[in-house]
Amino acid sequence: MQIKMLSILVINTFLIVPGAFATIYMEGRCPGYTAVPGFNRNQFLGDWYEIKRLEADELLNADCVLVNYKTNVDGSTVDVSNRMVVLGNTPSRIEQRGYARYLDTSGRLVMIYNETDPSARLFDYYVTHTDYQTYMVAVSCENVNNSHYGESAWVMSRTRILPTTAVAVVNQATQQWSAGFFRTTNQDEVLCSSSRQLVLASITLLMGLVTIHFLR
């Protein structure tokens, strides 16, 4: 199988689903994707840790990415919660919420974040490989003009570390992309937990200062 290579060095940076939205731009039109047939919606729900994503050096350094899918009462849409931490001397936590709608009985969905924002856009999201219990590979693509398209891909896991039993199938599912395009997400439990605590502590301190100022 031919490995995809970048045709132009244009990188876009977004923080959208299912993790940090890293898009690589290539020459041509969006390829056809095959979503998982007979998709089991109930088994798909729950927490997924991002293991790696398509990315380049210019992209925002988001780690500790955790995505949760929860079905709505109508049964045809899913609430999506996306949390991540930008690590560093002053870690910042980012959380986004949106929803997804199934387009058919396969693992093809359409997603939107910040639906109250007029500029928010819908985008297709294909679950191409999953066993529901350990791993998931998902892709998204958009034709940006007549000659180039932007493609995103993610490897997700039910645990912070991809089980060794899933490595071979994930490698095969992502072999069309050069391995150098992928960035491994830092999911160190201690680091991610301490970063979240630091961010929450900062928010608590800020609220306390605001309260003190208000009471003066």
TrEMBL record:
This is Putative apolipoprotein d/lipocalin. GO terms for cellular component: cytoplasm. The keyword Membrane does not apply. Keywords: Disulfide bond, Lipoprotein, Signal. InterPro entries: Calycin, Invtbrt_color, Lipocalin_ApoD, Lipocalin_CS, Lipocln_cytosolic_FA-bd_dom. Belongs to the calycin superfamily. Lipocalin family. The keyword Lipoprotein applies. One of its GO terms (biological process) is response to reactive oxygen species. Residues 42-176 form the Lipocalin/cytosolic fatty-acid binding domain. Residues 1-22 form the signal peptide. PROSITE patterns: LIPOCALIN. It holds the Pfam family Lipocalin_2. GO terms for molecular function: pigment binding.
